[in-house]
Amino acid sequence: MPGPAPWQRITAGTPGAEFESRPPGQYAFDFPDSECDGWSTDAFTLRFASVRGAKHRYYRQPRQDAARAAVHEPTGSIVFAVADGVSSAANPELGAVEACRAALERILHLLSPAPDPLDFTDVATHAAERLRELAQWRLGRAETWPAEVAAHYATTLIAGVVRRAEGGPVVELFRIGDSGAWLLDRSNGRYHPLFDSKTGGGSWLVTNEVSPLPQVPAHIEQTRVRLAAPLVLLVGTDGFADPLGDGDGQVGTLFARHLATVPPPLWLGHVLDFSRETFDDDRTLLAVWPRGDSDPR
Predict the structure, then answer these.
(1) Range list of H helices, the chain
(2) Domain range holding 54?
(3) Residue 223 lies in a domain
(4) CA angle at 279 for the pair 273 and 283, rounded to the nearest 5°
(5) Calpha distance 100→92 (Å, rounded)
(6) How many Å from the N-terminal Cα to the C-terminal Cα in the chain?
């Protein structure tokens, strides 16, 4: 008997060109075309996926986005980080992964004992220092200039924690660069941004300027919000944010439908790899659902 039909790529509006992905360079084997993860604690369910964009698939470049997540076992908190390596850097994929690792390590450390609020300047500084150490090791020098570190490993970073609190779960997160975060209301499919968009919160002018790590601004963008059903926390790179826009179009409808209940991790990756003309960047999306009686499993 024939097996089930293979998944067909999802389109959102006018599809982009279809072609077989080309391999990245021979030393990019640590950065697969796609990756996903997913698990649940007694309080939260997490999913994330990261896929290589059409531009990088065609020009034989590795995926330059990264995501990492962990549970802080003493408190049951979910710690997460998402990064988007800056394409003008020499090795942005390395910068993205190291920034995520460093952010997770530092937040997990700071949560024992749990401070309120978290010191996100400390977290960002720790990630920037990790990039500097990476540059020293790979360049074989005891000292490196910030401009040298940026030239090799510049990356955006958005990271934080979801933890239990009186009155319901709380999300605390910060960002450096232009990645985004939203609360998706599953009851009506609306997206509520937690940071200003590239248009600057209402301006018609779009900017692509990014101030990435290893720079650490004097005042880091950060926010704190409640996360209660039917809300879902979404954290994504601009490869997801740009086609999403304000959430009122086809991409917003697509994800509101598929995130209304918790999808399998592989299915999230499949949906994230949708085809839409002109949107060819790497895409990464991390989602956290609060668990409750109304959340089907």
Answers:
(1) 54-58, 92-110, 120-139, 146-153, 238-244, 250-258, 265-272
(2) 34-290
(3) yes
(4) 45
(5) 12
(6) 30
Q: Which two tokens stand for residue 254?
A: 């697509």
Say what the pLDDT of residue 201 is. 45
In contact, 172 and 161? CB cutoff 8 Å: yes
What SS3 class is residue 214? coil
Q: Residue 3: inside a domain, yes or no? A: no
Q: What's the rounded Cα separation, in Å, for the pair 193 and 259? A: 16
User: Is residue 27 situated within a structural domain?
Assistant: no
Query: What does the alpha-carbon distance between residue 220 and residue 175 come to, in Å, rounded to a whole number?
Result: 7
Among 123, 130, 81, 83, smallest CA distance to 106 is for: 123
Q: Which residue has the tokens 């944010």?
A: 241
For 62-90, b where at least 16 C-beta lie within 10 A, e where not — what string? bbbbbbbbebbeebebbbbbbbbbbeebe
Query: How far, in Å, are 134, 289, 293 from residue 296 at the CA level?
Result: 43, 11, 8
Q: Is the pLDDT at 154 greater than 90, yes or no? A: yes
What integer pLDDT is reported at residue 296 of this predicted model?
Answer: 40
Q: Categorize the per-residue pLDDT at 114 as very low, low, confident or very high, splitting at 50, 70 and 90.
A: low
Check which CATH number belongs to the domain holding 205 and give it: 3.60.40.10
Length of the chain measured in residues: 297
Q: How far apart are CA 34 and CA 67, in angstroms?
A: 11
> For 289, what's the count of Cα atoms within 13 Å in the CB-facing half-sphere?
22
Is the residue at 22 inside a domain? no
- What percent helix, strand, coil does the chain show, rounded to 5? 25, 25, 45
Total number of domains constituting the chain: 1
Question: Hey, is 181 helix, strand or coil?
Answer: strand
Kindly report which listed range (87-96, 190-199, 213-222, 242-251) carries the lowest average pLDDT score. 190-199
